[in-house]
């Protein structure tokens, strides 16, 4: 079929004749005049209209000239032709956009294609197979994605989902392609999934059974068995006592660059400029600029990734009485614009550490495979395909900092976060005071961070009965911290952080950041609980009054 009219002047007779030929072709193949994909440059086949509206759109907006294979309008699609590849690549609109709409995925989530960025089109043959003969609205793949989305959203069991599939197969006409079991559905959807590694771990968080310990059956540190112990105290050989799931980030970073639109977004930071001189994006931060200045070969490539790592424990069970703690480890890509980098589909789960107890300081045991991949990313991953520029390049990445609440901050950084020396900035000079009646340690030297002439510095009664004339200490650099932990300073540091294995980590000015949400929530709970005298939330108790009396502060509030 002649499609040269798509490049003609919209005022020409050739364009007018071509539009009518196209519309007649669409109506004949789709057997409808009211629900046809509009191929204009604004709708790009994402919206359905009647013939009249599509005719107006194509004349006023112009037809999408990259739409060379009319697959949305009944033309047979051949996955191996260059024409079909352009449909998928141009303007970043994927042929399988229904998948991203249903399960909040981006095009970068569609499997690992290796060196061929078009391999996905060859793997997913079900994307063109109708769910039953004559169906124009759903294919086998789109129907399964929608059903699987319902399963995840409403927490269906595998048995329930299997019975639902059987019922759907009975309700649809004969010849339908709905699978009859959960197993068959998973086999169909496996190409959309992410590969992961299931690693066995010591129940006491001593080691991961990988590398030199891969074939071990007992932990070399504590001697406990690798296998789970049954109720009859008999070891179930082959059933691990503890498992950690690792989702390698490198294949997913490769997939991010195989999406035209995502690749453009990943270099967004290179074109922006800070107008007011304020920090509105991590690209304005000292850590970002240090990477650019100290390693110019890294900073000169805008496609190199800057990452942040976040981890915290949560209870996956609905019962709040359960103390089960599961720890996900998530990577965030800061190359993306602010309105995208914190979207769920761009937050990359890399580790899932099972419970029942939290790993605490031994979390670095589980971070070993991730650190190995981060080392490889710093050296460079060759042969990454850039869909926007149509070329292969060497991808590098750097971890800029971690984001956690204060207890997890201590687990990842190795810093003491409890006791008399709990301030990571003040260290040995932390101004702490133990409350005799409250049996807690309070830290009352926070006024030193105020401007030197601030009125709060001179107030006595509102604080601890003393004025504050001290100056804030300078935070330790990464090199100073590394020197302290390597030379046995265990007063303020529990261990050497595993992140120091990264070549650049000791040079970063900010290595760990606190999650403000946790701080705001806890402070707000305490204030509201005290003001409203909420039971078990009120901080104004008999112990607090007695401690004020012992400190000589607000003696008029002593209990009677």
Automatic annotation (TrEMBL):
Q: Which residue ranges does the record assign to the Transposase-associated domain?
A: 3-75
Native species of this protein? Answer: Prunus dulcis
Full protein name: Transposase-associated domain-containing protein
PANTHER family named in the record: OS08G0208400 PROTEIN (PTHR10775), TRANSPOSON, EN_SPM-LIKE, TRANSPOSASE-ASSOCIATED DOMAIN PROTEIN (PTHR10775:SF179)
Checking InterPro entries in the record gives: Transpos_assoc, Transposase_21
Any single Pfam family the record assigns to this protein? Transposase_21
Q: Taxonomically, which superkingdom?
A: Eukaryota
């Amino acid at each position: 079929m002649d499609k040269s009219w798509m490049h003609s002047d919209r005022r020409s007779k050739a364009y007018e004749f071509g539009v009518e030929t196209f519309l007649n072709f669409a109506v004949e193949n789709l057997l409808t005049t009211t629900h046809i994909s509009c191929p204009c440059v604004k709708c790009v086949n994402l919206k359905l209209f009647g013939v009249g509206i599509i005719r107006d759109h194509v004349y006023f907006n112009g037809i999408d000239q990259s739409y060379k294979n009319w697959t949305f309008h009944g033309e047979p699609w051949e996955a191996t032709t260059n024409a079909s590849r352009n449909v998928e690549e141009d303007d970043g609109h994927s042929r399988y956009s229904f998948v991203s709409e249903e399960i909040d995925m981006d095009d970068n989530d569609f499997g690992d294609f290796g060196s061929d960025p078009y391999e996905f089109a060859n793997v997913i043959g079900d994307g063109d197979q109708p769910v039953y003969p004559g169906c124009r609205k759903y294919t086998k793949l789109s129907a399964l994605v929608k059903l699987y989305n319902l399963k995840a959203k409403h927490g269906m069991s595998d048995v329930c989902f299997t019975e639902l599939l059987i019922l759907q197969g009975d309700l649809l006409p004969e010849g339908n392609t709905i699978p009859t079991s959960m197993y068959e559905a998973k086999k169909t959807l496996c190409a959309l999934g992410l590969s992961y590694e299931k690693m066995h771990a010591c129940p006491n968080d001593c080691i991961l059974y990988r590398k030199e310990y891969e074939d071990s059956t007992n932990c070399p540190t504590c001697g406990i068995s690798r296998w789970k112990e049954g109720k009859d105290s008999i070891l179930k050989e082959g059933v691990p006592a503890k498992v950690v799931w690792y989702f390698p980030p490198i294949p997913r970073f490769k997939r991010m660059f195989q999406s035209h639109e995502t690749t453009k977004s990943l270099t967004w930071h290179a074109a922006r400029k800070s107008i007011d001189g304020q920090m509105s994006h991590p690209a304005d931060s000292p850590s970002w600029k240090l990477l650019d200045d100290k390693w110019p070969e890294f900073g000169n490539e805008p496609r190199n990734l800057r990452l942040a790592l976040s981890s915290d424990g949560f209870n996956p069970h609905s019962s709040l009485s359960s103390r089960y703690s599961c720890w996900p480890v998530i990577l965030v890509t800061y190359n993306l614009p602010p309105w995208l980098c914190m979207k769920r589909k761009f937050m990359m789960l890399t580790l899932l550490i099972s419970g029942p107890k939290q790993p605490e300081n031994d979390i670095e045991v589980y971070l070993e495979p991730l650190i190995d991949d981060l080392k490889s990313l710093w050296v460079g991953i060759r042969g990454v395909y850039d869909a926007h520029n149509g070329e292969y390049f060497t991808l590098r990445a750097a971890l800029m900092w971690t984001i956690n609440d204060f207890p997890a901050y201590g687990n990842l950084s190795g810093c003491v976060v409890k006791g008399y020396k709990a301030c990571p900035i003040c260290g040995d000079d932390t101004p702490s005071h133990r409350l005799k009646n409250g049996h807690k340690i309070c830290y009352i030297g926070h006024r030193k961070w105020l401007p030197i002439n601030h009125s709060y510095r001179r107030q006595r009664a509102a604080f601890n009965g003393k004025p504050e004339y001290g100056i804030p200490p300078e935070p330790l650099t990464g090199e100073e911290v590394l020197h302290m932990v390597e030379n046995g300073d265990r007063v303020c540091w529990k261990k050497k952080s595993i992140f120091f294995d990264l070549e650049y980590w000791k040079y970063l000015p900010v290595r760990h950041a606190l999650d403000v949400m946790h701080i705001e929530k806890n402070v707000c709970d305490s204030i509201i609980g005290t003001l409203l005298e909420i039971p078990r939330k009120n901080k104004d108790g008999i112990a607090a009054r007695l401690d004020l009396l012992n400190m000589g502060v607000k003696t008029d509030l002593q209990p009677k």
